[in-house]
Structures are given as C-alpha cells and as structure tokens.
Design a protein that fits this description.
425 residues, alpha/beta, 7-stranded parallel beta sheet, 44% helix, 19% strand
Length: 425
Amino acid sequence: MDIKEYMQQVGRQARAASRQMAAASTAAKNKALVEMAALIRQRAPQLLDANARDLAQARADGLEPAMVDRLTLTPKSIESMAQGLEQIAALSDPIGEITNVKRRPSGIQVGHMRVPLGVIGIIYEARPNVTADAAGLCLKSGNAAILRGGKEALQSNQAIAACVRAGLAAAGLPEAGVQVIETTDRAAVGELITMPEFVDVIVPRGGKGLIERISREARVPVIKHLDGNCHVYIDIAADPAKVVPIVENAKTQRYGTCNTIESLLVARAVAKQFLPDVGRMLAGKSVEMRGCPESLAVLREAGIDSNLLKAATEEDWHTEYTAPIIAVRVVDGLDAAIAHINTYSSQHTDAIITENYTDAMRFLREVDSASVMINASTRFADGFEYGLGAEIGISTDKIHARGPVGLEGLTSQKWVVFGNGEVRA
C-alpha cells in the first residue's frame, strides 16, 4: 500500500463527505446513530470474535496488562457503546443554532450561527469503544471524521467501523462521513496530521508520547492535553466533613484517569487538623505519600506507616503518577496554594475545599486551569458529568475548546446578518 496515496484518497473522500454531513438534517443524523446502535447489538458476536483476535495478538506481543484491559470488549461494554450512540441521538443538535442576535443602528441584525468544523481527525490507542464514541459525536455535530485507532485494536475497530458505515448508509448519509484507517503503518499518522487541505482539526487521545509527537509535527490545529497533574487544596476554612471524602474520591476512585489528583496542598493552620485523617485514609489504600518536610512530620506523628512516606523532590510537584502515589505539601495559605498550582499544574482540573466565599471566588478566578472546582472531587471533570452527554476528550488549550470537548467543542460559529435592503452609508 502506498500510504501517502491512500491517505490522500481518504482525505479527499472526507472533504467531499463533510459538505453532505454539514447539510444533513437532525432526523437523518439521529436515524444513523440509532441504526449504528442496533447494528452494534446485532453484531455483538462478530465484535467479540474480532476483539478476541486482537487480544490474542496483544498477549503474544507482550502488551502490558493495563493496555490489554483497555483493549478488551465484553457484552457489557458493547451494550454501553450502543447506549452511548443512542444518548448522542437524544442530545440537542447544535448545528444551525442562531444566538446573540442584536439590531445595529444601521438596521441590520447581527448574530452567530453554530456550524461544523469540517473534517476531524482522531488518533487514539487501545480503546475500541472510542471508534463508536468518536463516530457518534462527529456525526451529530455535522462533521466528517477520519479515525486512526491503535494497531493493537485493528480488528475490533474495523468490525465497529462496518456498523458505522451501514448506519450511515441506512440514513442516506455518505459512508465516507466516518472512515476508519485500515493500515497500522505509523506513516499514516504522519500523513493525517499534515493534510490541512483535507483535515480541519486533529484530536489525539493517548499517552503523552503520542500527543507530544502530534503537537510537534502537525500542520493541522490540535485539540489536546498532555498531562493530568490535578490538585486539591484544603483551605483554612475547610469543612471537616468534606475533606476526607473529597480527597478519597479524587485520588483513589481510579488511579489511571487524567482527572485524578496527583498533589494535595494543605493550609499550614489546619495541617495538623486534617492531614492525620487524610493520611490514614490514604495509607489504608496503600497510597504512597511523597511529602514536604512539614507534611511528613505531621504524618509520622499521626503514626502513618513509614514505608508509605517519602521525601518529595522538585520533580514530584510536576508528576502525573497515574498510580497510588500522591505528592503532599503544606503551604502558607491561599496565595501560596494558587502560586503552587499555577506553577506546577497541567491546567487540567484543580479544586479547593473551603467554606469561605471570598477564598472560593479567588480560587475560581485565579487558578488558570480548564476546570476549577469548589468542594467537589476532580473526578467530575468529564463530559458526561458536565451534561455534555459524551466527550471526544479533554482540552487544556486556551483557544477554541477548553475542558471536556462535547458536541459544541466540535463546532465553530460564523457571523450571520439579517437585513431588509440596508446599505452602508
């Protein structure tokens, strides 16, 4: 296969299909989504068979257990894919929405209309369910999509892609509206991210190495986040009843997600009040605590297992562990907490626990992250939890989409003008 020629063909087909996708009615898009869901349920045995072939190859290649887990399809996860498509069908269609219409002194009315981005390239690893999720979100937002999954999920992705194509055809939409790359050659990624004539935006979902490479080499705008170095700050006015439950959920519900906290900051005035209970909770779950000297002294005094306590290094404040490890630091107060977060955070999600309204509002205004929270677990930083229905990923960029990227994040706005014969003086 000539990779360049193949990708150029995919790009041309996507660009042509994008015009039809943008013009598609809500009814047609919803019909396609419902048909895709029905086909995924109907073809569950074929999907499981394709996935079994991927899993056998993955184990033969020595793929790490966490990746094998993400690769695995089950009857339950297949049903979740189908339900996800039905949920997207139930969402409001953002395309064509006109807002902020204002009459100008000249007599014209000026507003915004929401429109698709065009062609979206999505590059992801291991998770076959992303194929269905991404196809559904791009379809509902009126975009064409080029999906490039990881080589470890090739058979699974192609089986899901067949359901997607059939669903599009059943609704009278172009099958090229969603194309799943059929080659595992890494050169296909290099072509995809350097075709601005065919692709309008790239969304990478995967490890830091993949995202760094795409950000470095792409000639197409990229919606991305590199790290999830999230924080919880326990303020001097924190409610004791909220501290342990929030920290426990934010750190220990799942260790490998990008909205899990990696650092805990505690105001010096309440360190001895809160750190012992938090430390005992973390120790009970075998979480290693890498602390500043002051935090380690408090934790040792509270009788925390010394095997779980280590001195933090400068690198620890920067690190996304995705593991049962947390960095702990005692800070002077709110100013120092905000300064620490804005220095070390990956600008993903950060939270404050406080009953002080002024402190809470300052934290919201001054912490420079995509999601900032008061008295809630950072694990809520998710498209479904935010009411978006689903998400294509999380963005820590400041231009276009920021935070969970749902349907609106896959659209843009153009100016529209309503006149009645007016001419400019």
